[in-house]
Fold this sequence. Notes:
Layout: H1 2-22, H2 27-37, H3 43-55, H4 72-76, H5 82-100, H6 109-121, H7 123-132, H8 140-163, H9 171-207
Helix pairs in contact: 1-3, 5-6, 5-9, 7-8, 7-9, 8-9
Amino acid sequence: MRNDLQELSTMDQLIIDIVKNKNPSTVEQLIKLIQLRRPQTDEEEIVKCILRLERQGKLVFKKECSPFPYTLTSYLGSPQAYWYWVIITLALATTTIIFTIPENAIPIVYARYLLGSIFVLCLPGYALIKALFPTKELDNIERTALSIGMSLALVPITGLLLNYTPWGIRTTPITLSLLALTLTLATAAIIREHQAKLQEDTQQRKSQQNTNFA
């Protein structure tokens, strides 16, 4: 019994030493390194020792991180870009509803009022704030408040500029102008966000060791 405990203790120490000195990136690599030192040791026994050390907190397995989408196209298809597609969908849906649902079409017209309010009071300002602060410098409350404030500033400026054009201040030119403004700002924001996160990911990869063990 004492010899068995001593053997286990020696095996545990061997595993810990190999992890510290060799930095294996996977469990399979660790098992191969152990078998080089002790060819007679059964692989199943090695796995049991590794799992026991992990339960005791002497070994910590790092989860494999999913690769960062390095291209803008792949980033647009990732869950991190969900806000961009929400803005695009709301802007296009609002524009379509404004041009298709008449004002006397009750009760469907209430959907036009609701989406129109979001379109005017939130979307342009949110896209601008996202472009100015692409990462998490702001919390949700601050971002929401600034989005409404910037929207209230952008919409009158847009109307003022349209007043000096041949189209004037009417529903069609205002809607199309706000749509173009929102899409432009949102696209600029998603590009800046991707660049910022790409730089952050590159720095993290340089500072961390490429290993699955701590």
